[in-house]
Each structure stands twice: as C-alpha cells, then as structure tokens.
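Input/output pair, single chain:
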Amino acid sequence: MTQDKPPKTFQRGAASSEIYRVLRDEIITHRLAPGYPLDETGLSKRFAVSRSPIREALNRLLAERLVETLPNRTTIVAQVDLRDFAPFILALDVQQRLATRLAAQNRQDADVKRMRHLAEAFNESVDEATALDILQANFAFHVAVGDAGRNPYVARQYRELLSEARRLLHIHVQSLDTVNRRGVMRDQHHDFVDAIEARDVAQADAIAHAHTMQFHDRFLTAMQYSPDAGFDIAQPSRVKQDADP
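Output:
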C-alpha cells in the first residue's frame, strides 16, 4: 500500500483536518483497502501527533461512513460489499430524488448560483483533474443540492450516501480514459440546476432518478471483465505414445 508522505508539522489547530483529508483520500481511492485497521497509536506515529487529533479525524470519517468501529472498539476502513449494491442504489435513489425535489421547492437564488458554479467546476474537473478531484467535485455539487432543500435531516442522510458512493464511483472513473470521461460525464449537472431553478419538482425528480440509474449502469459496466481477443495461448502439442507391443 502506498501512502502519501505526511507533512512534518501542522499549523496550530489544523492537524485533525489535515489528517482527516489524507485518510479520506486514501480510503476513497482504495489505497487504504476495506477492512484495513486504523490504529490510533500507529497513526499517531505516522503523522507525528498525539492521539487527540487522530481521534477527531477518525470521528469525522466515521460520520461519513468511511470507517467503522468493531465490537472490540477497533476502527477499520469500512467494508465495500457488492452484495449490498442493490439496496444501496435503492436508498440512494430515494434520497437523491427527495433531496432534489426539496431543492426545487425551497431553493433560493443564492443556492442556484452556488449549484451553477459547482456544476461548472465539475465539468472542469472532468476535463483536467484526477479521478479523486472528480469525485470531490461531484460530491460537493450534490451536497449543495441537499442543502438547497432546507431540510437538515434529509441533507444529512443524503450526504452519508453520497460519501459512501465515492468509493464505488472511483472504480467507474478509473475505468475511463480522459477522452471517454469527457463524453460520458461532462454536463450532467446543469440539468439538475435548470429544473431546480425553474422550481419544476416533477422534472427535478425525473432527473435525479435518471442520474442514479446512470450511476448504477456505469458502475456495473466498469465491473465487467473484457477479455483480450488478441491474446492466444497455443495448445501444448500432445505427446505421441507408442502402442504397446
């Protein structure tokens, strides 16, 4: 496992946030594999800090469902169980549709401006940035949609699902080269903003549902194995045995 070299020193009061970001990025990009133990003592040595900022960083990751605590109080990177993909997509679809409907009902002008800016930032990330930057730009846009609905309970639940989705989306983004991802992923958020700005609840609902199903289909496509038709292994020649006399 490759880990980024941490900074030798942190600005006062910034250690937990910086450690959180490093661990978050390593989890999302699978450099820290599901089930990997996150021992406070080991992390304290790695980042050269006390256990207090480590504990704060792990609590933030726990809130985003990127880590989990076992009954023996050991913290590990949260598991990714593909057997749970169908119920996960169902939950994401429900929350995404509800959050987007509420945004269309309750948005303010400042929300529209913010979402439009984040939609364009996402497009720029698709054109130029790394897979991790794309994931974070996508996450930021959808969090803004949740915030625009002005229901903190829905926004919190939606954010948790979006956070979990990042690790699955990373698999999809990595399966695309730069040219393909521009054609597949660019301009998929401005339609959200158009419907929300128009306060068209039915259209916002339809777009949110289609967006979830698009994620579902693309992830399954990324998981499929494509055999190399040009790879041929010659069959070994059979040994001719003399017949018994």
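The mean pLDDT is 86. The two ends are 61 Å apart (CA to CA).
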